Amino acid sequence: MRLLDELRAGLGRLDDEALRRRRRSNALPCAPRATVDGRELTAFCSNDYLGLAGDPALAAALAEGASRWGAGSGASHLVSGHYAVHDELERALASFVGYDRALYFSTGYMANSGILPALAGRGDAIFADRLNHASLVDGMLLSRATVHRYPHADVAALERMLAGSAAPRKLIVTDAVFSMDGDVAPLAELLALAVRHDAWLVVDDAHGFGVLGPQGRGAVAEAGLDTHPEAWRIVLVGTLGKAAGVAGAFVAGHADVIEWLVQKTRTYIFTTGAPPALAHALLASLRLIEAGEARRQRLQSLIASFRTHTRLQRWRLLPSRTAIQPVLIGDNAEAVAVAGALFDAGLWVPAIRPPTVPAGTARLRVSLTAAHDETDVVRLAETLTRLERAGGGG
Questions:
Q1: Where in the chain is CATH 3.40.640.10?
Q2: Known catalytic membership, residue 207
Q3: pLDDT at 275
């Protein structure tokens, strides 16, 4: 029983440090209204930024796709699990974000953890923002390249690291919108450094695609880099299970880059292809995103309302213009207690603790969507303010 005893002791330490995670099962479709353990809640924890996941038009497209293509793909993409609708989706994605070609993955984690080992190896160097998502971190480790992590968004520090590297191949790797802080990377400056030091720039736009930029084409387009003469250096990752409301991810870039990834990305080659019905639904999602300016404007209005009505003194609402609005609390146990008090008040907001965020920066991660009502947002802001005045979760 020694092996089990070791696990139980480890679980006990997680409890002592207020770090054990808990799953909650929602009895309703993805939407601001949720039912968990029989309790009716307003949820502020979904990445469904445009409110598309539960949209009837998208659900109908998924049902239509299943009727046309069946339930599964049957094999990996490079055997027999790639279908005409996958091709159609990849062409549409590439056209939408303004690149030569795109490659569709089953998940964003598979995309990030797969493309970095395909682009870099032993002797190469990866330069990564310290707050990058775990999927990028794991991809860097799998690559066996030398990894340099620069302080968050510190372009000067990154330039010093690049100048001091003699690696034959260099990759700058960054989130576009940082998932736990909500801020946006300095993409124009990063591309300038990539040009100066002859590097690739890998951008994970998981939380910007569909929300930022013209027609929701993402943070790269918002920065005007999609038409930059050196845009071929950018390897763009977009997630399709957040603002797009379905599932999967894509990588877009120069045609030769994408062809290389088809040949070398293990997480693409050695897995069963995503169901073609999802690709059918995602084509409908792309049309909704492109025509979704009213949804994006509504989301911006809700972000402004939340920031106006949240009046904190001890906790801190981090600076963010995106749908991710973090409330920094600091202590793990206090963050868990505040999340519990909000839950008791009918407001579902997750407490985020290490190792997802650095030690001492536990927080509430408020996610707003275009499907929220302004009354929901104001109630959350006022409840947070009241709880802080009352001393937290007590």
A1: 56-290
A2: yes
A3: 98
Q: What is the DSSP letter of 314?
A: S
Which fold does the domain 24-50+293-390 belong to in CATH?
A: Aspartate Aminotransferase, domain 1 (3.90.1150)
pLDDT in tens, 326-356: 999 999 999 999 999 999 999 999 999 999 9
Interhelix angle 84-97/56-69, rounded to 10 degrees, is 140
Per DSSP, what are the bridge partners of residue 272? 76
The total number of residues shown for the chain amounts to 394
For residue 213, give the DSSP letter.
S
Catalytic pick among 143, 179, 320, 367: 179
Domain limits, CATH 3.90.1150.10, in the chain: 24-50+293-390
**Over 60: is that where the pLDDT of 394 sits?**
no
CA distances (Å), origin 225, targets 16, 109, 127, 320: 47, 24, 20, 21
Q: Are 297 and 354 in contact (CB under 8 A)?
A: no
CA-closest candidate to residue 106, choices 252, 241, 206: 241
Determine which one of 133, 148, 242, 372 is catalytic.
242
- Cis before 355? omega within 30: yes
Cβ-based burial of 268 (10 A; exposed 0-12, middle 13-18, buried ≥19)? buried
**pLDDT more than 70, % of the chain:** 99
Say which of 82, 148, 207, 280 is annotated catalytic. 207
Class of domain 56-290 as given by CATH: alpha beta
CA 81, CA 293: separation in Å to the nearest integer?
35
Catalytic residue check, 264? no
Whole-number Å distance between alpha carbons of 263 and 119: 11
Q: How far apart are CA 227 and CA 351, in angstroms?
A: 39
Can you read off the two tokens belonging to residue 141? 């480790």
Q: DSSP states of 125-191 as a string?
A: EEEEETT--HHHHHHHHHHT-EEEEESTT-HHHHHHHHHT---SSEEEEEESB-TTT--B--HHHHH
Q: Is 242 tagged catalytic?
A: yes
